[in-house]
Amino acid sequence: MRKELIFSLFALLAWPFVAVSAQNQVNMKFGKPTKEELQMTVYEAEPDAEAVVLCRLTDVEYTVQMTSYLVDYREKVRIKVLKPNGARFANVIVPYQVGMSVGNNITGLRASFATIPMNRASGDSYFGEESGSMSEGVFGTDGDESVENIKATAFNLEGSKTVKTSLKKSDVKTTKIDEHNYQVEFTVPNVKEGTVIEYEYTIHSQLFWELHDWYGQCDIPVAFAKLDMDIPTFLIFNIEDHGIQRLTHTCTAGSMKYKVESDPLALPMTVTTNHYVYVGRNLKGMPNDGYTWNVQDLWAGITAELRTYRLRGMGQMDYAKTWDQIEEMILNSDDLGIHLNDHSPLADELKEAKLEEVADLRVRAAAVCQLVMSKVKWNGKYALSPASTSETLKNGVGSNADINLLLIQSLREVGLTATPVMLRTRDLGMLPYNFPSVSKFSTFLVAVILPGGGKAFVDASSKHGGLNEVPEVMRVERARLVQKGRKGEWVNLQKIGEQKK
User: Fold this and answer.
1) CA–CA separation, 45 and 49 (whole Å)
2) What is the C-alpha separation between 300 and 242, in angstroms, rounded?
3) Which of 203, 319, 417, 442 is at a distance of 20 to 30 A from 185, taking alpha carbons?
4) 157 near 131, Cβ under 8 Å?
């Protein structure tokens, strides 16, 4: 990664920031591309670019409700197609989430406050002792998103006439990716070399505690990008900006009005806001060069995580402000943490094989891994939340999380110390550095703690299931080892075999 960063930084320093008029005078009025935009044939700052984002505007607006919030992401994009291959940007995919169940499990942590330690202000008792969890009392049982108000138009200059071709509703397709993840897909019609593409949409979200990651940069150059967020001060986010090129940003005090749904005749009330504005100009196109696992780590953008929140009539409460809190959530989660000490469904076979009598702990651990992986095959998927190990064994196939939980139980069954190591696979990008994140983990592997502080690592997705044979996609610099009764620690999986206490 270091070499790629140095190379990319050198390229940026050497890159001439030559601006065209479309960059200096940004046209923020959608529906009417300028004559200069329609006649544009080359982007002077990057003459070989197949297309350029002329203007991208993202507005994030919150709505205050009686016991919750809603958030709308309003997206507007204008792209100029400069070469035939640039017509691929007519294809637009918008991901969104549906039915994010609130519960005391790892996946649910991304959509709930159910297991998050609270520091409630003295005297605040909104839920009562029998409420079960905050998520049940306030946030409901599901959190949904929807994609609305889709508009798209292609503008082509034919002689001296501007011809508009608009997207039809019938051309918009919705696809289910998995239980919770969906996407809306559409193709702007009549796009070719010379076309100016404009499209807009709104993501309406009940997941107010999850602020979407935003990247001003992409694989083609961006002349201008702006993120405008007006967030009630009831919600305080940790925000980390990143990238080789950086965005300029401001945060000022603002205000917004809202009405209480239970009293439609009442006058609007006012709440103060934090008004964030992030702007990127003349951002270089950064396609994946084949050497970087996730090029978005290098793009100018922001990542955010909710730090504290407050509902009407209540005091400020913590979401998750320390790694210790996150570890506690993981170790108490219904689908992983509370099952780590369960007996393995392979207990009888392990006992019959007398693996507990093997003196060399590495040999013992390797034998357990071989047994588990001879019983259950990896289905090719990395996951965060495991299924029941009895079901996994019965099915004979599962995700790496399914098999890794079975592996932990089996290792502990023969007297070994095994524990999960939480991580974000390299293809999904790095964990934030400036704040603890409850939502960025994507999977876990297994650490076997050996005498003298040594550690061996294994994952069910490895080809042979041997110790320290961890696939490259999981060899991250920062992974979090969590262990009951002990403080968590960072491990560098790029230095497997060298891990010590």
Assistant:
1) 9
2) 6
3) 442
4) no
8-state DSSP, 341:
T
Q: Is the pLDDT of residue 6 over 50?
A: no
- Phi first, then psi, for residue 130 (nearest 5°) are -100, 10
What pLDDT was estimated at residue 141? 43
State both tokens at 411. 């290792």
What is the average per-residue pLDDT within 477-494?
92
pLDDT digits (tens, 9 = 90+) for 140-164: 445 799 999 999 999 999 988 999 9
Question: Token pair for residue 492?
Answer: 């560098």
Q: Which residue has the tokens 């958030």?
A: 71
Measuring CA to CA, which residue among 23, 49, 440 is closest to residue 210?
440
Residues with Cβ within 8 Å of residue 498, at least 6 apart in sequence: none
Q: What are phi and psi of 377, to 5 degrees?
A: -100, 145
Query: pLDDT digits over 16-27, tens only?
Result: 433 344 445 789
Task: Record the pTM.
Answer: 0.76
Quick check: helix, strand or coil at residue 252? Answer: strand
What is the strand order of the sheet 173-176 is part of?
91-97, 181-187, 173-176
Task: State the DSSP code for 407.
Answer: H
Rounded to whole angstroms, the Cα distance separating 357 from 353 reads 9
User: Greatest CA separation found in the chain?
Assistant: 86
Q: Which residues does residue 270 pair with via DSSP β-bridges, in sequence order?
A: 257
pLDDT over 90 at 103, yes or no: no
What gap in Å lies between CA 108 and CA 439, rounded to an integer? Answer: 10
Residues in the chain: 501
Read off the tokens for 298.
């290098």
Task: Give the single-character DSSP code of 396.
Answer: T
Tell which residue, 168, 154, 110, has the closest CA to residue 135. Answer: 110
Ordered DSSP codes for 208-236: TT-PPPEES--SS-EEEEEEEEEEETTEE
How many Å apart are CA 306 and CA 320, to the nearest integer? 8
Which residue bears the tokens 């150059």?
221
Round the CA-based radius of gyration of the chain to a whole number and report it.
26
| C-alpha–C-alpha distance, residues 353 and 346, integer Å | 11
Rounded-to-integer distance, Cα 224 and Cα 283, Å: 8
For 10-69, the pLDDT digits (tens) are: 444 444 433 344 445 789 999 999 999 999 999 999 999 999 999 999 999 998 877 778
- 100, burial (CB in 10 Å: exposed 0-12, middle 13-18, buried 19+): buried
Q: Concatenate the DSSP letters of all residues of 145-210 into one string.
A: EEEEEEEEEEEEEETTEEEEEEPPGGG-EEEE-SSSEEEEEEE-SS--TTPEEEEEEEEEES-TT-
**DSSP 8-state symbol, 400:** H
Token reading at 345: 């469904």
Mean confidence (pLDDT) of the chain: 83
Q: Which residue has the tokens 């297994």?
A: 446
Burial of 162 (0-12, 13-18, 19+ CB in 10 A): middle
Residue identified by tokens 């291959």 is: 85
